[in-house]
């Protein structure tokens, strides 16, 4: 979670944002071991993203809601989810962070045929891990995710965990035009080669700004999920001390975030324990200040006037029960390294891409005739000198191959000038070190954020056979080449 690097970026022309609200979701009762049947339908819809007096925004949605319905599953209980495609283009669903069979991973061409318009596909898996996960398309990802197709997936622990309330905040970032419609320009060369498509509106659970109602003395489990295309977030809870319990669905040693800021890159999730120690009737802001000079209020904790729920504060939060992740054997590990290359101000290290220059130079030029990374379908990024563009397809050559059961010691080195949340499909990675310093708190993640010039070492056991995607979860970066595949045989 901690980057060991400066978390601020200079002003790059990002737009100021507005805030969102929160939704309380009740715990689903324990069910029998029978298969849990669900249906999701992806189709055009509408959402009231802005003020109630403004027209709704045309979106794409699962089951007519933005974000899609929260899927609360049970650890170890089989689930069967039928996905129906009501769009006019192919789609799939990727169950982000779930360790499942390769055929259920949702990468078109690589693990399954895409779901054609008016067709359906049945996903079946048994979630081995409890925690906070999410689901989203892995076909035309930039557009489909950017138009609203995303939802939270919560796998409840086999034994209940004691909290007064369990909340999910699904964070989405939208680029809206003046008329409130989603702006065009998906896949622009500027977005592809720099920070990605950062929007001008942030919502929480798809709603316009509103307070989160709380009561003094209660303890909340707050699940935070960043479903944005590109926006990084760093949240401060005014007057409160959140304790991190899990990252990317995997429990860690409970700890307070470094400098009090919860850093969430696209695709990351963080579970926190939040003790309501404010005054009855008080309001406390939750601020996102990741981008230098562009801080805004994401939400507010609004206390009712009732007396505190408890006379005495609770003891410090205890650790969540660990999931059954195989422990890496570092002594016998096979070492692999991937190097992230390219992008604007990337030093020209991406073969075949011209026009690598600083942003100030780009902004001052007439762009006519200039080949810019990501323009006209050219790749803007590479991993180990190879660019794989798009969402995935059949015949993708693996970057490396692992025998089933071997421990992989993976080094990820960011040679670029940009931030990259690197997501691995099918596995969770045990973080070992960042820039040579040990990573504390026994953190397992499926999405590892690398600041410019960061080097992260991590490890995992290759116990899940198949061809698995490894890519940046800034959607523009993935589509423009920052993607690779590894194979487990």
Layout of helices and strands:
Layout: E1 23-24, E2 36-47, E3 57-62, E4 68-74, E5 79-85, E6 94-96, E7 120-125, E8 131-136, H1 141-146, E9 151-156, E10 165-174, H2 189-193, E11 201-204, E12 212-214, E13 219-226, E14 233-237, E15 243-247, E16 250-255, E17 262-264, E18 269-275, E19 283-288, E20 296-303, E21 334-342, H3 359-363, E22 381-383, E23 400-402, E24 407-414, E25 420-424, E26 429-434, E27 437-438, E28 444-445, E29 447-450, E30 455-461, E31 466-472, H4 475-479, E32 483-488
Task: Summarize this structure as a short list of keywords or feature phrases.
about 5% helix, seven-stranded mixed sheet, Immunoglobulin-like, 32 strands
Structure commentary:
By secondary structure, the protein is mainly β. It folds into two domains: 23-303, Cupredoxins -  blue copper proteins (Immunoglobulin-like, Sandwich); 330-488, Sandwich (Immunoglobulin-like). 4% of the residues lie in helices and 37% in strands. The chain has helices at 141-146, 189-193, 359-363, 475-479, and strands at 23-24, 36-47, 57-62, 68-74, 79-85, 94-96, 120-125, 131-136, 151-156, 165-174, 201-204, 212-214, 219-226, 233-237, 243-247, 250-255, 262-264, 269-275, 283-288, 296-303, 334-342, 381-383, 400-402, 407-414, 420-424, 429-434, 437-438, 444-445, 447-450, 455-461, 466-472, 483-488. Strands 1, 10, 11, 13, 15, 16 and 18 form a seven-stranded mixed β-sheet that branches. Strands 21, 22, 24, 26, 27, 28 and 30 form a seven-stranded mixed β-sheet that branches. Strands 12-20-19-14-17 form a five-stranded mixed β-sheet, with no helix packed on it. Strand 15 and strand 16 form a beta hairpin. The longest helix has 6 residues, at 141-146. The radius of gyration is 22 Å and the shape is globular. The two termini are 31 Å apart. Mean pLDDT is 88; it is low at 1-32 and 347-372. Pfam families: Cu-oxidase (PF00394), Cu-oxidase_2 (PF07731), Cu-oxidase_3 (PF07732). This is Multicopper oxidase family protein.
């Amino acid at each position: 979670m901690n980057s060991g690097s400066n978390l601020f970026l200079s002003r790059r022309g990002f737009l100021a944002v507005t805030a969102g609200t929160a939704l309380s979701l009740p715990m689903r009762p324990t069910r029998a071991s029978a298969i849990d049947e669900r249906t999701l339908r992806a189709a055009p819809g509408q959402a009231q993203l802005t003020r109630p007096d403004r027209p709704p925004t045309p979106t794409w949605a699962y089951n007519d809601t933005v974000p899609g319905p929260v899927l609360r599953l049970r650890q170890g209980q089989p689930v069967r989810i039928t996905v129906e495609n009501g769009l006019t283009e192919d789609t799939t669903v990727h169950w982000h962070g779930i360790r499942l069979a390769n055929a259920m991973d949702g990468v078109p061409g690589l693990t399954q045929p895409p779901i054609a318009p008016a067709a359906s596909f049945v996903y079946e898996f048994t979630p081995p891990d409890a925690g906070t996960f999410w689901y989203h398309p892995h076909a035309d990802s930039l557009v489909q995710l950017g138009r609203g197709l995303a939802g939270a997936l919560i796998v409840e622990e086999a034994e209940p965990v004691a909290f007064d309330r369990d909340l999910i905040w699904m964070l989405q970032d939208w680029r809206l035009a003046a008329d409130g419609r989603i702006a065009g320009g998906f896949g622009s060369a500027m977005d592809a080669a720099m920070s990605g498509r950062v929007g001008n509106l942030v919502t929480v659970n798809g709603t316009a700004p509103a307070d989160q109602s709380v009561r003094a003395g209660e303890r909340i489990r707050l699940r935070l999920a960043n479903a944005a295309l590109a926006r990084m977030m760093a949240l401060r809870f005014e007057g409160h001390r959140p304790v991190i319990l899990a990252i990317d669905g995997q429990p860690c040693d409970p700890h307070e975030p470094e400098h009090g800021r919860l850093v969430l890159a696209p695709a990351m999730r963080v579970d926190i324990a939040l003790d309501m120690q404010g005054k009855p009737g008080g309001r406390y802001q939750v601020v996102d200040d990741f981008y230098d000079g562009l801080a805004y209020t994401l939400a507010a904790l609004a206390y009712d006037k009732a007396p505190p729920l408890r006379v005495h504060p609770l003891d410090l939060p205890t650790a969540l029960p660990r999931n059954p992740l195989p422990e890496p054997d570092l002594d016998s590990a096979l070492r692999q390294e991937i190097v992230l290359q390219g992008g604007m101000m990337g030093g020209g290290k991406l073969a075949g891409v011209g026009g690598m220059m600083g942003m100030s130079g780009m902004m001052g030029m007439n762009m006519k005739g200039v080949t810019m990374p990501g323009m006209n379908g050219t790749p803007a990024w590479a991993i180990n000198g190879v660019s794989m563009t798009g969402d995935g397809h059949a015949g993708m050559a693996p970057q490396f191959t692992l025998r089933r059961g071997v421990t992989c010691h993976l080094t990820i080195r960011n040679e670029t000038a940009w931030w990259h949340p690197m997501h691995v499909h099918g596995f969770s990675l045990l973080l070992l070190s960042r820039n040579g310093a040990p990573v504390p708190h026994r953190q397992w993640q499926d999405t590892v954020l690398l600041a410019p010039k960061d080097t992260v070492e991590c490890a995992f056991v290759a116990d899940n056979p198949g061809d698995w995607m490894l890519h940046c979860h800034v959607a523009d970066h993935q589509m423009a080449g920052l993607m690779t595949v590894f194979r487990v045989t």
